UniProtKB/TrEMBL annotation:
Modified residues (4-aspartylphosphate): 58
Gene3D superfamilies, per database record: 3.40.50.2300
Alphabetical UniProt keywords: Phosphoprotein
Pfam families (alphabetical): Response_reg
Protein name according to UniProt: Response regulatory domain-containing protein
Domain Response regulatory positions: 7-123
Highest taxon of the lineage: Bacteria
InterPro entries: Bact_response_regulator, CheY-like_superfamily, Sig_transdc_resp-reg_receiver
Transmembrane intervals: none
Length: 133
């Protein structure tokens, strides 16, 4: 029986980046949901939160310039892991308290294999029945 693939919610306000990251992840066997901003992301989380394993979020989203989206998603869906994929340099994000120092952090442009590897590394392998290996 084949393993169930992780579900990733990708959030970015740039439609080209959103499409590119989604395509990169799908080509590597992941299931992808997308949102163009924080409000849309929260709506997706409320509707399909139990399915989502990983949130890939930009830190500079209009209406969410303080990285609050990740905190809101995890507050509603504690099982969701977070990866930041952003143009904001990590040292600035850390110095201003936007991210936890242990959070996976990728600077754009993001390498497809690196992104997929980070996502896969955050999600325990599951059997087709949904049991953890």
């Amino acid at each position: 029986m084949s393993a169930q693939q992780p579900v990733v919610l990708v959030v970015d306000d740039d439609p080209d980046i959103l499409e590119t990251m989604s395509l990169m992840l799908r080509k590597r066997g992941l299931r992808v949901l997308t949102a163009a901003g924080p409000d849309e992301a929260m709506a997706v989380c409320r509707e399909r939160g139990a399915e989502i394993n990983v949130l890939v979020a930009d830190l500079s989203l209009p209406g969410d310039l303080n990285g609050d989206l990740a905190r809101r998603v995890v507050a509603e869906q504690p099982h969701v892991k977070v990866v930041f994929a952003t143009g904001v340099p990590r040292n600035i994000a850390l110095a201003t308290g936007l991210v936890d120092p242990s959070a996976p952090y990728l600077l754009k442009p993001v390498d497809a294999d690196t992104l997929a590897s980070v996502v896969h590394g955050l999600v325990p392998a599951r059997t087709g029945s949904g049991r953890q290996l």
